């Protein structure tokens, strides 16, 4: 997870800083520095949102599986939320105006923002291809890969947790019984 967080944040930060400081020149739009809503900063904002949306697709697979689209349409709620997020972004950018400090973008500008955002997918693929054991240990961020019996460890933790809950329920029931007996003794 650390590998993906660090890799995506470095990538996204680089894209956003380049867009913020050089985007006006690279995109051929007026600078948004110290002015009201501009195409420049609307594109920075739009790219940021789409970097996040595409990275959500990457985040669906947490064990470095290569195909992040496997089973994509099987979770209807996820698909609905993703479509809603994208639709809201379109509405905010195209019709948000001053409240959101956005200006409508052209179709070309939309394609640029979507393309930059979609670049999170190949970056995620590259990160999934990097073995955790190949990462420098000196960073102190990488753990050894979990042993093959990680599921056995998970079962053990669940069993322990259930045993604790059962014990707590027995204690509560015993306390209630003793309170009931005490009440009877007081009433008699």
TrEMBL record:
Gene3D superfamilies, alphabetized: Calcium-transporting ATPase, transmembrane domain
Record's subcellular location: Endomembrane system
Record InterPro entries: ATP_Ca_trans_C, ATPase_P-typ_cation-transptr_C, ATPase_P-typ_TM_dom_sf
Residues of the Plasma membrane calcium transporting P-type ATPase C-terminal domain: 157-179
Pfam families membership: ATP_Ca_trans_C, Cation_ATPase_C
Protein name in UniProt: P-type ATPase (P-ATPase) Superfamily
GO cellular component: endomembrane system; plasma membrane
Transmembrane stretches, start-end: 38-57, 77-97, 109-130
Bilayer topology annotation: Multi-pass membrane protein
Signal peptide coordinates: 1-28
Cation-transporting P-type ATPase C-terminal domain location: 1-129
GO terms for MF: metal ion binding; P-type calcium transporter activity
Lineage of origin: Eukaryota, Sar, Stramenopiles, Oomycota, Saprolegniomycetes
């Amino acid at each position: 997870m650390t590998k993906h967080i660090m890799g995506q944040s470095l990538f996204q930060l680089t894209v956003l800083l380049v867009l913020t400081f050089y985007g006006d020149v690279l995109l051929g739009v007026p600078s948004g520095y110290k002015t009201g809503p501009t195409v420049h900063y609307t594109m920075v904002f739009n790219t940021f949102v789409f970097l996040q949306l595409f990275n959500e697709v990457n985040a669906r697979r947490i064990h470095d599986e290569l195909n992040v689209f496997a089973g994509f349409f099987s979770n209807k709620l996820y698909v609905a939320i993703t479509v809603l997020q994208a639709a809201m972004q379109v509405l905010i950018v195209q019709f948000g105006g001053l409240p959101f400090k956005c200006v409508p973008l052209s179709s070309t500008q939309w394609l640029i923002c979507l393309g930059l955002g979609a670049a999170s997918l190949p970056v995620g693929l590259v990160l999934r291809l990097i073995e955790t054991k190949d990462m420098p240990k000196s960073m102190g961020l990488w753990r050894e890969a979990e042993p093959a019996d990680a599921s056995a460890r998970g079962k053990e933790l669940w069993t322990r947790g259930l045993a604790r809950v059962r014990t707590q329920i027995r204690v509560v029931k015993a306390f209630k019984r003793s309170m009931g007996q005490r009440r009877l003794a007081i009433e008699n």
